[in-house]
Design a protein that fits this description.
The protein is an alpha/beta fold and 235 residues long. It has 2 domains: 10-26 and 96-230, 3-Layer(aba) Sandwich (Rossmann fold); 29-93, no CATH class. 46% of the residues lie in helices and 11% in strands. It is built from 11 helices and 6 strands. It has helices at 28-46, 50-64, 68-71, 73-80, 84-90, 101-110, 123-133, 145-148, 155-165, 179-188, 222-230; strands at residues 15-18, 114-119, 141-144, 172-176, 192-196, 213-214. The protein has a 6-stranded parallel beta sheet, with helices on both faces. α7 links the parallel β2 and β3. It starts with 14 loop residues before the first strand and ends in a 5-residue tail after the last helix.
């Protein structure tokens, strides 16, 4: 897929920052959990209908969207009086890589560039996904927003991440499936920012965002292939 002149120039990229859910892992697992599993269990524990459970949970979603609480399993466990981590662990069989995402990460790392996983997911959720898929071993570093004290939607996140990683904003590529996060990264000055339009494997692509987009991260690797082809034998 062509990016209308916005293809990454890999000769100008040293660091690649990748979101987890919806970018390298299939977001369908999380959508199923938050839209079906959790409301159903909340309904059962309170003797109410699933529709009523959704109605009661909606104000909590709306009040916390874009904050660390939105992503915090401790917060949701308290708010709903449920063991969210245990429920999430019970659905771990649904956790899966998006097509060719692991191959993309491996190709970028093999090129000598640093590849970092940056996620808003709570450390306990990250641990469940890592135990199931071995996520961490595919990256040079992994950061949960909870370790940095702010979600990716806020400027503080990028400041804290840059203090830990010391990346050059002008030589960094970032891919994510959430528009407010992408906009926050652009405001921070990250040069190569891409929206993932197909965060769920078996769902149609999302409408184009105001930033360059691809259906999946592996589409960004075309320039890497050209770079490799241009190298002299034995390089």
């Amino acid at each position: 897929m062509k990016l209308n002149g916005h293809s990454p120039d890999w000769s100008a990229i040293d660091t690649v920052l990748l979101d987890m859910d919806g970018t390298v892992l299939d977001l369908g697992c999380d959508i199923h959990f938050w839209q079906q599993v959790l409301p159903r269990r909340y309904a059962e524990s309170n003797g109410i209908s699933v529709d009523e459970a959704h109605r009661r949970m909606r104000p909590i979603h709306e009040a916390t969207r874009g904050t660390l609480e939105w992503y915090c399993v401790d917060y949701w466990s308290r708010a709903l009086a449920l063991d969210v981590v245990a429920l999430k662990r019970a659905t771990r069989h649904r956790i899966a890589w998006l097509p060719e995402s692991r191959a993309f990460v491996a190709r970028v790392r093999a090129s000598g560039r640093r590849v970092v996983l940056v996620t808003n997911a709570h450390p306990e959720i990250l641990a469940i996904k890592d135990a199931h898929l071995g996520v961490r071993r595919h990256f040079d570093a992994v950061y949960s927003a909870h370790e940095l004290g702010a979600p990716k939607e806020l400027a503080q996140y990028w400041e804290h991440l840059e203090a830990r990683e010391s990346f050059d904003r002008g030589r960094t590529l970032f891919a994510d499936d959430t528009v407010p996060v992408l906009e926050s990264a652009r405001r921070h000055g990250i040069r190569w920012v891409y929206a993932i339009r197909k965060p769920v494997r078996h769902a149609p692509p999302r409408a184009p965002a105001e930033v360059p987009g691809v259906d999946s991260v592996h589409e960004l690797a075309a320039g890497l292939d050209r770079e490799r082809a241009a190298q002299p034998p034995g390089a």
